[in-house]
Specification:
Elements (H helix, E strand, L loop, with lengths): L1 H18 L2 H11 L4 E5 L4 H13 L3 E3 L1 H8 L9 E8 L4 H12 L3 E5 L1 H6 L4 H11 L6 H5 L3 H12 L11 H7 L5 E5 L12 H19 L5 E3 L7 H9 L4 E3 L20 E2 L6 H8 L2 H4 L5
Parallel strand pairs: 1-3, 1-8, 2-3, 3-4, 4-5, 6-7
Helix pairs in contact: 1-13, 3-5, 3-13, 11-12
């Protein structure tokens, strides 16, 4: 019920933003100031992802790859007005049909950040176990609350929960990952080994999560992996230094913001606008254009 109330309130707010021209003015600003929209998804339906792509195309936006973003940051190329960078977090198996197929069909570059452990071992993502355990009354822990605990305690709770619950595979397999990495429109990046909250980890564990994921992906894919996305968008100065130490060239946050050439001077704290699978398409239009984050909105 709470989620439904939130979505109704958010839908009404998004309608107001659209009706009163906030989206239109944001689009004009993006083109006028040559801002870059940095947009990320997790596990969208094919309909949502395709709808977002079609809306952006109808409104004159141009999709760029991670390589083009780097070349732009280095001053090697200029970008057209209305540039959009698409990224996806986690490596959900549904991404194969709902994102990769669409990207290939429409020739749209997408970077997918994957956590290696769910790909290698199957089962569910750790938060899926926590959510199901709470729903079944096995545990009282909520996902957001467990994220705030130190990593050793989180792992201890997860071990207990996993012993009681079975989940089907949620991540793509290693063979599927290798296959999509051959697409000219798909770039694979790292999202850690097990998707912990890095600032809640010891430095030793955080370094392992960052560097080992890069090592495994490069072994599997037989190509360099240069980009990283902070799990849950959480990071501190320590994680930035560990990313650099692990020889990544980019790192993406979950903090909302437009990209400019000046903001790309720091390539290890790249902002992104988050899309919500549970939200209305109108809300996601407001999210894509940045309007949702600039204006006060329902929580």
């Amino acid at each position: 019920m709470q989620k439904s109330i939130r979505n109704v309130a958010a839908y009404c707010f998004a309608i107001l933003l659209l009706t009163f021209g906030f989206v239109r003015r944001a689009r004009k600003r993006v083109f006028r100031e040559k801002l870059i929209l940095s947009i990320f998804f997790h596990d969208p339906s094919r309909h949502l992802f395709l709808s977002c792509i079609k809306w952006l195309q109808r409104n004159g936006f141009y999709f760029i790859s991670l390589q083009e973003l780097q070349q732009f940051a280095l001053g090697e190329i200029s970008l057209p007005e209305g540039a959009v960078l698409l990224t996806v977090d986690d490596g959900w198996r549904n991404n194969l049909d709902n994102i990769v197929d669409v990207a290939d069909d429409l020739h749209v570059p997408v970077t997918i950040f994957v956590s290696t452990d769910p790909i290698e071992h199957g089962g569910g993502y750790w938060w899926s176990y926590v959510s199901k355990a709470k729903k079944l009354g096995i545990s009282q822990w909520a996902v957001e609350a467990l994220k705030k605990q130190n990593n050793d305690y989180r792992i201890k709770m997860l071990s207990t929960i996993r012993s009681c619950i079975f989940l089907e595979r949620e991540a793509m397999t290693k063979d599927e990952l290798i296959s999509i990495s051959d697409s000219k429109y798909i770039t694979i990046g790292s999202h850690s080994v097990s998707h912990p909250i890095l600032p809640q980890c010891t430095e030793e564990v955080a370094l392992y999560e960052i560097s080992e994921s890069k090592k495994k992906l490069e072994q599997w894919l037989r190509k360099r992996v240069t980009s990283f996305s902070y799990p849950n968008g959480d990071y501190s100065k320590r994680e930035v230094e560990l990313i650099k130490e692990s020889n990544f060239e980019f790192a993406f946050t979950g903090s909302p913001g437009y990209l400019t050439k000046d903001s790309l001077n720091e390539m290890f704290e790249i902002p992104r606008f988050e899309m919500l699978e549970s939200a209305s398409f109108i809300e996601n239009i407001c999210r894509m254009t940045g309007v949702w984050f600039i204006n006060k909105h329902p929580n």
